[in-house]
Specification:
Phosphoribosyl-aminoimidazole Synthetase, Chain A, domain 2; homodimer; globular; alpha+beta; 9 helices; 2 domains
Chain lengths: 312, 312
């Protein structure tokens, strides 16, 4: 059944039926606005938009996977401030001939990924559009901690990473060359495995700066370096190339370090910590902060590409 | 200059330079997420999306006016809960060949409308897209009051309205017939005059339910009637047809009451109050709540159309 047949309110009812409820949702979908608990008296808020053809393809990802990725991109931004996600709002623009099932499965994917952090979908809006577009806003609570911003890195700090990099980019390359395996890479592109809890854990451990790795590690650390007015050096030998990534890179003629250091969409968290800090177990040191500017790899400029600009 | 020339980060820098700062913005654009004050320990949140060709036309509205309308649609939802807006987040999808000036003026319009309520634009995201799309999320603070929901109307309550109806719909009809005057109607379509402060005022005066009139008074009161499980009757003689609206209706062969009772986009606020309540001065009684279902005009079903469904 198409959305033209169910109508706007019919589709909204079907979607709302697929959303769960959570502890921070004081008033969920169905009114002019939602009401969300903000016990900290401050709310962390971030918006990310996914556009078909730019950020996802319906022949590469199921509706549920697109929903999970749309949620993950936003929830990771909340975690990267050291906060715990509480709620999502979703603006969905869909072609009138879209099958209702697709929208329902998208809602399930959004809801499932949110549930991994304790958050729920509390509201949204819907319109027809020639271009399938999903704009998600995530809210989160700081639990009394200071937000961990990009500008706090200090010379002498260590740079550390929680979560994996390169997997989603490798999966994207595999799919773009027409392959469907190795499954671990393709699934990494389809379903990000974001270490959400490591954001608040890093904040509690004294992280001086933090960022969600969405565009590529070197590009995103470049934002930290610029905001903190420091230089950052990454050690290439801190990254081991996993066997399946090595095989795929070899078969496709790609340098796997381009995936590891410049590939986006895995939503790892990168942070800086004072050198004396005791890092939570999921974090591993990958480099250091020094006086200067920019990001280097083994003290040399990186030549392999640095993430992407959506307009170029 | 096109956005393809400035690039994503160049455009973001130009837009951020046009946004003001406000008291609730504890951390504005430029990090993974914004931080917004939530002194009430609850946050009110709403999302609305505008799609070119569906919700606006670039030949009918300036970029600044589109920005104002995108902000107003969201800010009115916050006011309709009895809350005061604090912040906006904006996801902007634009064609790569869009002139940068258009995006800058859009940002100024968003910022100006937000400033009318004391709110500021605290964050956002941007992507290229074949379809110009603006998704806005508004946040607000309840200031210790209970949220005014749609489900609280009681038989015996009065129905009251703050703000005007029919002006934007009349302006839309005028524009769609190829005219540019009367100016008061066309400008009402382009620049909504939303009585934001009347939302918290109604809450303080004991409103039992409230809604933002975005799709048309009768359709939106239909949501209140359904959620409250009551009937609502509107008195036609509570609406006077303004002279310029009467003239335009006559020239275009339209019943002006279709504009007044079923026209959307003015973002008036409609609320129910106990009959003994003392209404704030900007509110006028237009009907009453009774046991039953649905919305009637002078106790009869309305025959003139009831707002619109974006998919039909």
């Amino acid at each position: 059944m198409s959305i033209a047949e169910t109508g706007e309110f019919g589709l909204i009812a079907r979607i709302v039926a697929r959303l769960g409820s959570g502890p921070a949702s004081l008033l969920g979908p169905g009114d002019d606005a939602a009401v969300v608990a903000a016990p900290d008296k401050r709310i962390v808020a971030s918006t990310d938009v996914l556009v078909e053809g730019r950020h996802f393809r319906r022949d590469w990802s199921s509706a549920g996977d697109v929903g999970r990725r749309a949620a993950a991109a936003n929830l990771a931004d909340i975690a990267a401030m050291g906060a715990t996600p509480t709620a999502l709002l979703v603006a969905l623009c869909v072609p009138s001939d879209l099958d209702v099932t697709w929208a329902e499965e998208l809602a399930e994917g959004l809801s499932e990924e949110a549930a991994r952090t304790g958050a729920t979908v509390v509201g949204g809006d819907m319109s027809s559009s020639p271009t399938l577009t999903i704009a998600v806003t995530a809210l989160g609570d700081l639990g009394g901690r200071a937000p961990v911003v990009r500008s706090g890195a200090q010379p002498g700090d260590v740079v550390a990473l929680a979560g994996r990099t390169g997997f989603a980019a490798a999966g994207y390359t595999v799919l773009s060359r027409g392959f469907r395996t190795p499954k671990v890479l393709v699934e990494a592109y389809r379903k990000p495995a974001v270490p959400y809890a490591e954001g608040p854990a890093a904040a509690a451990a004294g992280a001086t700066s933090m960022i969600d790795v969405s565009d590529g590690l070197l590009q995103d650390l470049g934002h930290v370096a610029a905001a903190s007015v420091v230089g950052i050096d990454i050690r290439r030998d801190a990254f081991e190339v996993p066997a399946q990534m090595r095989d795929a890179a070899s078969a496709l003629g790609v340098d796997p370090y381009v995936w590891l250091l410049a590939g986006g969409d895995d939503h790892a968290l990168a942070a800086t910590f004072p050198s004396a800090a005791s890092l939570p177990p999921a974090w591993r040191v990958i480099g250091s902060v020094h006086e200067g500017t920019g990001v280097t790899v083994d003290r040399k400029p990186w030549q392999g590409g640095t993430g992407w600009d959506h307009f170029r």
